[in-house]
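Our working data are protein records whose layout never changes between entries. The record below serves as our worked example for the rest of this section:
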Amino acid sequence: MTGGARGIGRDIAARLIQDGHVVVLADVLTDLVMKTAKDLGTSARGCTTDVSSSVSVNSLIENVMDVDGKIDVLVNNASVVDLPATEIDGITDAEWDKVLGVNLTGTFNCCRAVTPIMREARTGSIINISSDLVLSGIPGLLHYTATKGGVVALTRALASEVGADGVRVNSIAPGFTETDAALEFCGDAVTRSVERRAIPRAQQPSDLVGTVSWLASVDSEFVTGQLIAVNGGYVFH
């Protein structure tokens, strides 16, 4: 589980532990990810990982295999959210590279690292967290939206590559979700999101855990290559 120190990642980790999984929380926020792992109990471990670095990711996967000997589920949740809304001419090279490095390259690095392991075991579920901005295309977050669209494309291409080996790859498109990090940078997004939703309330990290739990389980063993929008009807897909 990448991006597991707080918010959506923390809630997903708690549900997967409830389902019987041992969860490794990977995050660049060292102190927080270690605290979160401790809070979640003996079925959780924390690990400092920069998903934009293939060296860091490979070290993480090697550690997991040394300790656990297998990887059944990968949840790619790490994401850059500290982005001031700006149109295309306001996006700097550094901002573009930062978002691309974590959101898309980070997802690729983790998928590439676990795919051989899952293929050899002939089982596994990869769950990539995208965004419903890919479906709505609102202005001001082109860099974020483009990387999340890349995650969907990567999901579909990888699903077609590894399906015959028993590995499933799916993506989830959350709506704007109330996390501390998102609320700090997204202004009135809560109000605007609620107004457009068929289910008119704010989205919480806990709203995503059921879908992740299902995709991680054998109940979804014939589902792959899909994008599932979990957004209260902000966008229908």
Remarks:
- The chain has a mean pLDDT of 94.
- Residues 93-121 form the longest helix (29 residues).
